[in-house]
Amino acid sequence: MIxxxxxxxxxxxxxxxxxxxxxxRRIIEHNxxxxxxxxxxxxxxxxxxxxxxxxxxxxxxxxxxxxxxxKRVHKLELINKNRVD
Length: 85
What we know:
By secondary structure, the chain is an alpha+beta fold. The chain has one domain: GIY-YIG endonuclease (3-Layer(aba) Sandwich). Helices cover about 40% and strands about 25% of the residues. The chain contains 4 helices and 3 strands. The protein has helices spanning about 25-30, 40, 55-70, 70-80, and strands spanning about 5-10, 15-20, 45-55. A 3-stranded antiparallel β-sheet has the order 2-1-3, sandwiched between helices. A hairpin with a 5-residue loop joins β1 and β2 (about 15-20). The chain is globular. The N and C termini lie far apart (about 25 Å). Keywords: Endonuclease, Hydrolase, Nuclease.
């Protein structure tokens, strides 16, 4: 199973990082309904600005934790180097 690590830019310009097995479905969940993360529910709409694929959950989770520990400026550098449009 493929896991996707992703970063969303929220309407208030904050960043949200997560992992999923179905990226398209997860973005829809973040932008509608009750299935989106509590953090993003009050910051809609969200836009996908970064994604990366992993072969297993463990590797995706490790990278998610690493990215979450970065300062905002470093997250923005990562996003700008690997832009999703």
